[in-house]
TrEMBL record, chain A:
Its main location: membrane. It is a multi-pass membrane protein. It holds the Pfam family EII-Sor. Keywords: Cell membrane, Membrane, Phosphotransferase system, Sugar transport, Transmembrane, Transmembrane helix, Transport. GO terms for cellular component: plasma membrane. InterPro entries: GatZ_KbaZ_carbometab, PTS_IIC_man. This is PTS sorbose transporter subunit IIC. GO terms for biological process: phosphoenolpyruvate-dependent sugar phosphotransferase system. The chain crosses the membrane at residues 152-173, 185-202, 222-242.
Automatic annotation (TrEMBL), chain B:
Keywords: Membrane, Transmembrane, Transmembrane helix. This is PTS family mannose fructose sorbose porter component IID. PANTHER family: N-ACETYLGALACTOSAMINE PERMEASE II COMPONENT-RELATED, PHOSPHOTRANSFERASE SYSTEM SUGAR-SPECIFIC EIID COMPONENT. GO terms for cellular component: plasma membrane. It comes from Lactiplantibacillus fabifermentans DSM 21115. One of its GO terms (biological process) is phosphoenolpyruvate-dependent sugar phosphotransferase system. The chain crosses the membrane at residues 104-127, 133-153, 174-199, 219-236, 243-260.
Amino acid sequence: MSVSVSVIIVLCVFVSLAVLDQISIQLGPYSPLFGGAITGMVMGDLKTGLIVGATLQLMTLGVATYGGATVPDFLTGSIMGTAYAIIAGKGAEYGIGLAVPIGLLLTQLDILARLTNTFFQAKADKYAEAGDYRGVERSNVLGTIPWIVSRVLPVAIGLIFGQGVVNAINSFIPQWFMDGLKTAGMILPAMGIAILMRYLPLKKYWPFFIIGFVMLAYGGKSFSILGAALVGLAMAGVYVIFVGNKEHTATTSNGDVEVDDDDDEVEIDE
Amino acid sequence: MSKLEKSDIKKVYWRNIFGLQWGWNYERMQGLGYSWVIMPALKKIYADDKAGMTKALKTSLGYFNTSQPMSHLIVGADMGMEEKSGIENDAAITGLKTGLMGPFAGVGDTIFLAIYRAIIFSIASYMALSGSAVGLIIPIIAGAVILWVRYKFTWIGYNQGTRLATDFAGRMKVLTDAASILGLTVVGALIPSVITYSLDFKYKVGKVTLNANDLMDQILPALAPLLIVMFSYWLLGKKKMNSTKLIFVLIALGMLLGNLKNIF
């Protein structure tokens, strides 16, 4: 099955909007979940798309562009992974296995886009010198082009040669490798979770982490993430009522705010 | 200097929602976007002050990078300050921006990136895994709430101006702590539910077959996922380790675990 031109165009438009969402509102289209779902819908297999997207989403929960760091492009990864899974007809797991390496490869294009925009920054400086505010405005608007091109290009090329890529994968990559990727897909969410544990003050508030784990480990059948979130919300509320309000009055009467840096933060990305 | 109207502030808000990072680059990061965002306010304030406009333009293009939702507070405060006292003292504006962007980035990334995403998108993903696309609406609804919060932030920043650094920051600390508690509860809950791996390894002693995963579950349910997470957590604490390298480590581990049957 080859991908029709209209599908390629629709997905290119989608990824353009999605990358703009990623760098602005972050409403949803930028997420691997939406990437997989929309691709699945457009290609006529919503279920596969949902599974690929959701699995990738869970895998990358903690992966975010903290401080503008570049992270693997799992949005494009989920679009391509879903498309390849549907073309090959080998189920969602096939797509999940492919999406991760694709996302990793595309990291480089993201870096290239951010580098290219330095050019528009330099332009804007010149316009500002001359007091030309329209020029400054135009520079920022033109800054969207590198973002869009860096996402549309791989999607278009990857889909045009979709059938060829899938054939190559099927004939060159051994079964044990695909099995390994499948298992990797199951354990990769550990990365997102570990990043969150590093990012949040685990050493200070570890009891809540244990409570959350126990709720789902022992009560997984009857409990859900939403349930755990509500329990967490209640505990956060208790904290604000009994500790937070006191602390707040303490800091404001002192006049200055204490910033505690006792959590050893890690470099999330280079 | 002219006064800002409500419509100007709304214009700045919308620009901030969409375009703060369009021109993101390695040299000044959100600097270019910041200039575009605050432009409607600058145009109004310096409507008949060409020199002031040029100076304000240059100041607005300076290095800037923070969490997007939190940036509204800073942009708001900047507007308030320039409306009141112009760009005469541009060092004060730059000081406000650079002084707040660091702490605000920490707070904002924790709440709006880490915790928000972990909760909203994990719930939506679960619904998707069971084949329902209805869950996709959850991030959209939550996103609408964030849009409202960001609108409020713009006004809080505008009204508080320089006091932002002291008053609001104190309240944010309590909020961050509370959000961290909520976040860590969810993170703990994610481990048994998100990591679906179970050790596929059987060992035969005489006539009895021991299933390694059953044994581990008797010690603690979801022990295997917990061990993998703790291993990843420990690795991330190492120097020279980052999330991208961790992906490769976990893929290698997956290759090994996925082929246990073939090895033994």
